[in-house]
Amino acid sequence: MYSFEKVLASLEHGNLDAALRAMISELEMDNIAPNGGAMQIEGVVIGYKDNATSMRCKGPQHPSEGSADVQSYSGIFYNDIYDRNGGLKTRFIVGANAEMDLELQSPNTVKISGVDSAFNIGKVIIGSDTDVVFNVRTDSDTSSLCQLTIDRIDTGTKGDANTSDVNVKATKYLHLNASVTLGTAVVSSLTSTQISALTPPAGAIVFNSSTSKHQGFDGAIWNDLY
User: Fold this and answer.
1) H or E element at residue 35
2) Mean pLDDT, rounded, for 96-107
3) Cβ(226)–Cβ(215) under 8 Å?
4) 99 near 86, Cβ under 8 Å?
5) DSSP β-ladder status, 189-190 and 205-208
């Protein structure tokens, strides 16, 4: 890719500046040009290494955290254990050293999708050795209504006409906990007429706003819980 003959000849004569100019000249010929301390690349760049094709970024920590050099990386890796959750053994991974956090950020939408209907295995798996935390808030925390919405959508149907179910499952117990002192868990609030029009499974719970009572469905009728 580079004119190594020119580079080596310049280095042999101790002319580092000429060696750099020779390399930059070749870079520019290949649509790669230095741009204010960065490298601007036009076109497609392909790297290859068996089971470790990756791009790495290296930089210092915050001074208060030690100022050590840390790395982030993204690349293609494979491992026999990767398919234990129903996925494939080959993955594209974005990661970072243990000494720093990894953040995906956008002023608009960050979209993570698993959508391959041809194989019927499109899924998004979120895992953690400790907790998975979803924080939905604005900078001022109370300046506008913020919601965490979980919805299983039919891509051919939009709005209220979309009636796909959402299943939240747990291996044993499913706990719905709000702040101990500031909040509660709230179920759907519907009128008696709206509740009568439902066709829910046994075990469904709703708040009847017409009678101001919670009701449970036994598979045949709605019953007041108190």
Assistant:
1) strand 32-35
2) 85
3) no
4) no
5) parallel
Q: The domain containing residue 9 runs over which residues?
A: 1-45
Total number of domains in the chain: 1
- Beta strands 205-208 and 213-217 are antiparallel
In a domain, 6, yes or no: yes
Is 160 part of any domain? no
CA-closest candidate to residue 83, choices 92, 91, 75, 73: 91
Number of H helices, E strands in the chain: 3, 9
pLDDT over 90 (residue 64): yes
- Answer for the pair 165, 176: CB distance below 8 angstroms, yes or no: no
Q: Rounded CA gap, 148 and 10, in Å?
A: 61
Whose CA is closest to 223, among 211, 176, 184, 189?
211
Cβ pair 191, 209 in contact under 8 A: yes
Give the C-alpha separation, 211 to 215, whole Å. 10
Weakest mean pLDDT among 41-55, 56-70, 87-101, 198-212: 41-55
**pTM over the 0.85 mark:** no
Q: 92 Cβ partners below 8 Å, 6+ apart?
A: 74, 75, 76
Question: Residue 189: inside a domain, yes or no?
Answer: no
Contact indicator for 215, 192 with CB cutoff of 8 Å? no
Strand ranges, E, within 42-80: 53-60, 69-78
